[in-house]
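Why run this: before we spend reagent on co-expression, it is cheaper to look at a predicted model of the complex and decide which construct boundaries make sense. The entries below are exactly what would go into the expression plan.
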Amino acid sequence: MAHDERRLEVLRAIVQDYVSTNDPVGSKALADRHDLGVSPATIRNDMAVLEEQGYITQPHTSAGRVPTDKGYRLFVDRLSAVKPLSVAERRAIERFLDGAVDLHDVLGRTVRLLAQLTRQVAVVQYPTLSRSAVRHLEVVQVAAARLMLVLITDTGRVEQRVVDCPADIDAGAVAELRTLLNSAFSGVKLADAGDKVPDLLETAPQHLRGLVATVSSTLLETLVEPSEDRLVIGGTANLARGSALDFQGTVSPLLEALEEQVVVLRLISEVDAGTVLVRIGEENDHEALTGASLVTVGYGSRDRALGGLGIVGPTRMDYPMNMAAVRAVARYVGQILAES
Amino acid sequence: MAHDERRLEVLRAIVQDYVSTNDPVGSKALADRHDLGVSPATIRNDMAVLEEQGYITQPHTSAGRVPTDKGYRLFVDRLSAVKPLSVAERRAIERFLDGAVDLHDVLGRTVRLLAQLTRQVAVVQYPTLSRSAVRHLEVVQVAAARLMLVLITDTGRVEQRVVDCPADIDAGAVAELRTLLNSAFSGVKLADAGDKVPDLLETAPQHLRGLVATVSSTLLETLVEPSEDRLVIGGTANLARGSALDFQGTVSPLLEALEEQVVVLRLISEVDAGTVLVRIGEENDHEALTGASLVTVGYGSRDRALGGLGIVGPTRMDYPMNMAAVRAVARYVGQILAES
DNA sequence: GCTGGCACTCCGACCGTGCGAGTGCCAGCA
DNA sequence: TGCTGGCACTCGCACGGTCGGAGTGCCAGC
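The model came back. Tokens follow.
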């Protein structure tokens, strides 16, 4: 029906104008700035319907209209075209990420890049440990009865843990332990590491059993727990910058939630590689994120998401642009990590 | 002279009141809230002198007085008594830091602790690489012609670098290389690592020379550079929280500077273990830090500062409390790291 | 079903006023 | 000589009223 068609067109125009101007948009301004082919009066009727359906609202009588969360949702799902990145932006992505020296560096650059590209707060998750596989396990003696375990995963992540042992250990035992651990765990996904422990304990020579048990329990407890996922956050200055108004005056609850990490971590973990996920305002069932939207995507190779990355900003954001940027960056990061 | 004595007392009272109320403080309020033993009129005379000397200023005619940077400086240097932490606060420090699983965790907890204790932005530097010594160097083959070096320092820091080699490498060479590197660098301070390279190259067997040269140059280039110092930042929500007024409306330049890290890193590196350093407003010759003060101290054992930590806040801050908190936390972190 | 016209609403900018806090100065006093 | 109370003056800010403009809803006409 041509009716509904135009009404959606009106909604799209409202979203676009409101995002770029930050002013509630009225019927006359719409008619001026867009070729809708009808008069302001007709637009007013459409707007009344859209308001009744809950897609837009007016801050107060006789002000313009503003999209609701539901309105943004419709916009993102049906009204927004993918906005391809400019050549300059693609160049910037490559230039920014090339020359990173290690995983920490890659992710640090990624978060800065995303923040700069989108002018929002950027969030990048370290490759999930549980989905990574062991590349190498190093054992270093740091005291007579204390070992440091260093885990190197196939995603380039390096984790360290100190283990206190019940008795002093000699150098030979350390070397044996290293060999044992590596032959047992090399190439094994951390999520499956627990299954290997009984086998390991059985094959271990008698005099090492106790040590192996201590070490493997530390490994499992501190590394396989999902809580061990890490987050890099950047671009918080963008919050303070313009969007003071978007968050009813204060951005500090949002900053707190970001530093807390746990909420964002939960949200960012639910991603597939390749599919950009948008969460708008109230859809994030967390108080501090009311009024904020998340645009997230998984990065990694085609078949396997290593982790998630994305941005956090006001619901009033340029969704098409941000979705494109997030996707492009994730794709490139996936490539970089696959190479190394 | 009793005169100067009282004038300083007035300055101290002004600083204290202004810090706690955030209002310019007038002569009458001073006389009411402090036992200065003189009338408001006399205080007014003292204030006029203090203003002429540049210790205080008035935002506009017929408002109260506000301390200048110079005034805070005098306060910190001569007028503030060390404010001992409460038992509860000491407990909190211990409880917060105990149970950390690795260096990353220790520093993460430290920054959260400091931010919570002081209600300011907290900054913690990773142990400086150049002042650390090599505990172990691990070499892991990640592809036919690509190695990953993992450096473990005596401060518990772990750094990784990927090295591309001109030719394929066999497993035996990797093991040899590992032994060579460790015997050459174990226990050596990274700052002195460069000196060991000629020796190392000489003693290396012919067929490994090229490999050793490639690897050591990567090590030196990427790890000994001072730019490789890292920073953990937390409590940025405290900036947005109350002190919007303290930074003439916007905190975003400060947030940007913090994320940039380089400025703060430079300032935080100039620390001795044990001596709390206070930089007030303009004393930080960096535009974004005008209006901000830094309270920093080195952490580590008695004779060796591993790195710096501290807080960043408005010049209008509770210096005695913050100095005490920073010092106490640094001391405790030093202990924890010495143990591990 | 669209359009122009019209009356109505209401926010926000603008302005003038008055109040209160605070000052500087001065004369008097110990 | 230095402290004190008194006094006139200044100035920012909160308060309240006014006005204009933008935007709306409704209605009659095409």
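Chain B has a mean pLDDT of 90. The CA atoms of residues 17 and 25 of chain B lie 7 Å apart. Bring this page to Monday's planning discussion.
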